[in-house]
């Protein structure tokens, strides 16, 4: 219970309003709320003549509020604090380090259902009712096949499932369900406590999860021992688990998770891609569920209700483990003792909208607050992490061999310049790759083809005059979609029919340039008419059940060749894949990004790592126009140390990250002169005030000069101490007067340079 203010007989607290009031305001606490109220409680407050929600940030206040002016808060909305002490501290750190608004951070940290102060409406659940007889089953199948299939599904379930979700997923109408309820075969309830995310259930049902516990390899054992020792110190530490692809890093995580959970601790396990959460959750659950430990998933595809449930399960201490995408780093795990960041090098840990945090870096900071262990795992660690290892900030555990002494795959480089010369016309699939694909298909083994997503691929180009179909709002080539013959802009979603003749010179030679997954699919299908080929791209990734289905079909052997962008390269484990092709390895080398070499190296190693994970050796074909480029050569030899030495040397020479931190400051607006004017004015201010603390580069037009009709200019600040520099820049910026038509954003430790 909060301490009473000695002068008056009332309790005063400070509250930050969720609606974006950065300053905390003082409120008095009514007597009936005093027991419930804690630091981090969500409360309803009177503000600006309205009723709003806020978070209690402090009990007591130094603010001087004239007597009679102090308002009384209305109620405590949630029994569990929405920002317990550790998350409160994290909140302040994120706000300062990433120069983000309270509003944006609270929005990220607190799920919408909770933030809105409402409880999700009760959902109806169905479970099996009385047992049908064999005759009843047969009759049902004949007369009402839809009811029969629904009944069959429900009878396989151990827990009640939400009715609407099932009907939607099975494409059934309410009447099928009602019919079964009338007959008594199904039972309907509206209990909240039995609610289980439908998606999880499917996930654990159809991903193959072995319950058996493999015997650890020697190298795994050494790593597990090191983690256990770190855990038993009870202090903060960060460790890099650097193991080659297929070295069984997940098994090492599982051992650490088990150890933590056995002593009542909580765990956050971050994965870089939503699609991977169910796979990992399945493996974690297979280990922990038997011990009665509850694991929840956490990512952006959850419905509000599912997110609410996950949140509540963690906040109440009913669940101890969460597996999720980057925002799970803010999950209210109780007694947090371990944070795992799998594939820590992935750029997807960085959020590209406000707050622009990096989930990996927030994880390390949160572990520090919670005196926990943070494990960063990767086969291709980021240079930032390698640098932290070199400086002694992180410890490192290495696994140099694959499990069971499986070989790393053999990597072939195909020089596409020669390929273009020697074949009749350039084909995006080299003959070597085509032959190997055919060979696998004949042996009933599976292949994956990757396309480098970065870079601009499928636009329309006129060979006669050089016209490129570009978006008039974004100064970027538009993508040609073959299915509906339309051009689309990936940045602003503008679309228009693709021209049949060049709009500039009227030539009918206008044709597609570059490659999309669709084009590759067509070409490969022509080479192998009988093969079952499936494409996985941004469209299928956005439909949660579709990508799940594709991955399951691939796993069960219904698909021979899977084609996709590197999105699907992350962490997938398919034992029957023995060939991986990377169609255009060097596209990511030619970007205006100081991490281009690092990205290319990581891409090749990660993509290669998907091959030969079962008991047959794997092969990899890398197609490139620049076979001599160092990242490609190092990747071919799987020489991480060689690559890292050379690349760190380069970065040191230019004093790029990780040697200094980088901040990107972007100005944008519809009127380019105005934007330019204000950025020039601003540069004078920072130069004058901060020249001795940061190096300023720019202003210059951003590589993508225009998006959605807004012109963009940017500045770069290099600094060796962001913690000190950011508050100063923010203070200067607040005092700087800018035109309403120009907006700016700051990105600390940016991943996106465009
Ligand atoms: P990584 O994440 O390092 O690429 P995974 O953790 O996905 O590797 O493991 C690769 C495969 O090896 C998985 O199928 C896993 O079940 C299996 N595996 C892991 N450890 C062992 C072990 N000690 N013995 C046998 N198989 C193992
Ligand atoms: Zn033309
Ligand atoms: Zn556009």
Description of the structure:
The chain is an alpha/beta fold and 754 residues long. Helix content is 34%, strand content 21%. The chain has 24 helices and 30 strands. The chain starts with 10 loop residues before the first strand and ends in a 6-residue tail after the last strand. Bound molecules: adenosine-5'-diphosphate (ADP) and zinc ion (ZN) (2 copies). Residues 462, 464-465, 467, 502, 504-505, 507 line the site of one zinc ion.
Strand content: 15-25%
Q: How does the helix and strand content classify structurally?
A: alpha/beta
From the N-terminal CA to the C-terminal CA, the straight-line distance is 51 Å
The CATH class of the largest domain is: Alpha Beta
The backbone outline, from C-alpha atoms, is globular
Low-pLDDT parts are: 1-7, 192-208
Q: Could you please say which CATH topology of the largest domain applies here?
A: Rossmann fold
Q: Could you give the count of β-strands?
A: 30
Provide the list of bound ligands, each named once.
Answer: adenosine-5'-diphosphate, zinc ion
Major pleated sheet: 7 strands, parallel
What is the share of helical residues?
25-40%
Mean pLDDT comes to 85
- Strand order in the largest sheet: 11-12-10-13-14-9-15
CATH architecture of the largest domain: 3-Layer(aba) Sandwich
Rg from Cα: 28 Å
What's the CATH H-level superfamily name of the largest domain?
P-loop containing nucleotide triphosphate hydrolases
The number of helical runs is: 24
Count the domains.
Answer: 5
């Amino acid at each position: 219970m909060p301490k009473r203010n000695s002068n008056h007989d009332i309790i005063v607290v400070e509250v930050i309003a969720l609606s974006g009031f950065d300053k905390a305001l003082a409120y008095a606490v009514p007597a009936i709320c005093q027991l419930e109220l804690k630091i981090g409680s969500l409360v309803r407050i009177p503000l600006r003549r309205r009723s709003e929600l806020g978070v209690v940030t402090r009990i007591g206040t130094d603010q001087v509020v004239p007597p009679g002016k102090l308002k009384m808060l209305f109620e405590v909305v949630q029994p569990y604090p929405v920002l317990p002490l550790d998350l409160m501290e994290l909140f302040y750190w994120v706000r300062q380090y990433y120069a983000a608004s309270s509003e944006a951070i609270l929005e990220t940290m607190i799920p919408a259902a909770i933030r809105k102060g409402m409880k999700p409406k009760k959902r109806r659940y169905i479970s099996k009712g009385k047992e049908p007889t064999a005759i009843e089953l047969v009759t049902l199948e004949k007369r009402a096949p839809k009811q029969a299939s629904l009944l069959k599904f429900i009878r396989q379930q151990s827990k009640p499932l939400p009715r609407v979700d099932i009907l939607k997923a099975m494409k059934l109408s309410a009447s099928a369900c009602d019919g079964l309820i009338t007959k008594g075969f199904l039972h309907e309830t509206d209990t909240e406590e039995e609610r289980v995310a439908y998606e999880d259930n499917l996930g654990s049902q159809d991903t193959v999860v072995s319950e058996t516990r493999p015997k650890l390899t020697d190298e795994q054992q050494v790593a597990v021992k090191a983690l256990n020792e770190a855990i038993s110190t009870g202090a903060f530490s960060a460790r890099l688990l650097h193991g080659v692809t297929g070295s069984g890093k997940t098994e090492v995580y599982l051992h650490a998770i088990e150890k933590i959970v056995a002593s009542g601790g909580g765990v956050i396990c971050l994965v870089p891609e939503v699609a991977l959460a169910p796979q990992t959750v399945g493996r974690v659950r297979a280990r922990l569920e038997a011990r009665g430990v509850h694991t929840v998933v956490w990512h952006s595809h959850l419905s509000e209700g599912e997110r609410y449930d996950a949140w509540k399960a963690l906040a109440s201490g009913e669940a101890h483990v969460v597996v999720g995408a980057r925002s799970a780093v803010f999950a209210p795990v109780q007694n947090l003792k371990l944070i795992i960041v799998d594939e820590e090098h992935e750029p997807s840990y960085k959020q590209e909208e406000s707050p622009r945090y990096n989930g990996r870096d927030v994880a390390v900071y949160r572990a520090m607050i919670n005196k926990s262990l943070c494990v960063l795992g990767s086969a291709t660690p980021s240079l930032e992490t390698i640098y932290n290892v070199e400086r002694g900030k992180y410890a490192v555990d290495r696994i140099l061999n694959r499990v069971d002494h499986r070989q790393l795959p053999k990597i072939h480089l195909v020089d596409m310049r020669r390929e273009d010369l020697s074949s009749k016309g350039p084909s995006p699939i080299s003959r070597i790759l085509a032959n190997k694909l055919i060979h696998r298909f004949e042996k009933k083994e599976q292949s994956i083809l990757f396309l480098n997503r970065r870079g601009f691929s499928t636009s329309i180009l006129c060979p006669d005059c050089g016209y490129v179909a570009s978006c008039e709002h974004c100064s970027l080539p538009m993508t040609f979609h073959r299915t509906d013959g339309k051009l689309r802009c990936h940045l602003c979603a503008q679309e228009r029919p693709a021209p049949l003749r060049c709009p500039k010179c009227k030539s009918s030679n206008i044709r597609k340039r570059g490659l999309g997954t669709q084009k590759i699919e067509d070409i490969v299908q022509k080479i192998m008419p009988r093969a079952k080929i499936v494409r996985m791209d941004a469209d299928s990734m956005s439909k949660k059940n579709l990508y799940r289905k594709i991955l399951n079909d691939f796993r069960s052997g219904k698909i021979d060749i899977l084609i996709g962008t590197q999105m699907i390269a992350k962490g997938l484990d398919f034992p029957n894949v023995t060939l991986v092709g990377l169609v255009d390895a060097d596209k990511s080398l030619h970007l205006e990004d100081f991490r281009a070499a690092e990205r290319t190296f990581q891409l090749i190693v990660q993509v290669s790592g998907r091959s030969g994970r079962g008991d047959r050796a794997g092969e990899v074909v890398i197609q490139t126009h620049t076979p001599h480029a160092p990242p490609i050569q190092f990747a071919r030899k799987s020489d991480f140390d060689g690559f890292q030495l050379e690349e760190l040397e380069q970065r040191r020479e230019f004093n790029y990250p990780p040697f200094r931190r980088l901040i990107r400051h972007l100005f944008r607006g519809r009127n380019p002169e105005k934007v330019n004017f204000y950025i020039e004015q601003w540069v004078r201010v920072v130069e004058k005030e901060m020249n001795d603390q940061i190096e300023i580069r720019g202003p210059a037009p951003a590589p993508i000069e225009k998006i959605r009709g807004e012109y963009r200019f940017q500045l770069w600040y290099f600094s060796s101490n962001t913690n000190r520099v950011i508050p100063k820049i923010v203070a200067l910026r607040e005092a700087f007067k800018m035109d309403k038509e120009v907006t700016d954003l700051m990105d600390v430790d940016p991943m996106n340079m465009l």
